[in-house]
């Protein structure tokens, strides 16, 4: 047991431990970078979806307004303050 506690015996063990810590920290860094990239891509896709939904909502309102003016019936206010036919 005294032989294991000698500095010359601990040196190879400490080198292995340092190498393992370096590899693990590198792997964690790469994983974190991929995770952040995934979340950024998800956020971008969500914003694009939101923009597309707003465009479709505006297009739907315009179509309703066109169909409303094309009919003989008058438009009456619908729920939510929007115009409906």
Label this structure with key terms:
2 strands; 85 residues; 75% helix; mainly alpha; 1 helix; two-stranded antiparallel sheet
Account of the protein in words:
The chain is mostly helical and 85 residues long. It has a domain at 32-67. The protein is built from one helix and two strands; from the N terminus they run αββ. The protein has one helix at residues 7-70, and strands at residues 76-77, 83-84. It has a two-stranded antiparallel ribbon.
Short account of what is shown:
Helices cover 75% and strands 5% of the residues. It has 85 residues and is mainly alpha-helical. It has a domain at 32-67.
Query: Termini distance?
Result: 91 Å
Helical fraction equals over 70%
Number of helices: 1
The total strand number stands at: 2
* General shape: rod-shaped
Strand order of the largest sheet: 1-2
Question: Topology of this protein?
Answer:
Elements: H1 7-70, E1 76-77, E2 83-84
Antiparallel strand pairs: 1-2
């Amino acid at each position: 047991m005294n032989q294991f506690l000698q500095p010359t015996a601990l040196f190879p063990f400490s080198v292995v431990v340092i190498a393992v810590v370096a590899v693990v920290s590198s792997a964690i860094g790469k994983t974190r970078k991929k995770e952040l990239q995934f979340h950024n891509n998800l956020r971008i896709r969500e914003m694009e979806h939101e923009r597309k939904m707003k465009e479709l909502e505006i297009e739907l309102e315009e179509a309703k307004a066109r169909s409303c003016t094309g009919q003989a019936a008058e438009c009456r206010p619908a729920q939510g303050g929007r115009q409906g036919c």
